[in-house]
Design brief:
The protein has 81 residues and is mostly helical. The protein has a domain of 35 residues. The protein is built from 3 helices and no strands.
């Protein structure tokens, strides 16, 4: 199993990690492993594209129907003589 050393960790962050680990009754090392696992597992499982994510977010509200503006005929190309 690999080991990681983190240098220059902010004291306040270290205290928050210690408190969080203490609240859960685990070691700080275990808490850091859990945080890394959760962060990296969520990232790799999110394979949905942006459009699908937006659609899923608004689906409970019934979706959105937008009116498309009418289109006119294509203009003739300019002639430069």
């Amino acid at each position: 199993m690999a080991s990681i050393t983190v240098n220059d960790l902010d004291e306040a962050l270290e205290q928050r990690l210690l408190q969080r680990a203490s609240d859960k009754g685990v070691t700080i090392e275990r808490e850091v492993r859990d945080i890394l696992t959760a962060a990296l597992c969520d990232e790799s499982q999110n394979t949905e594209d942006l459009a699908s994510s937006i659609r899923a977010r608004f689906a409970p509200f019934g979706g959105v129907e937008l009116e498309l503006p009418s289109r006119g005929p294509i203009r003739d190309a300019r002639k430069f003589d």
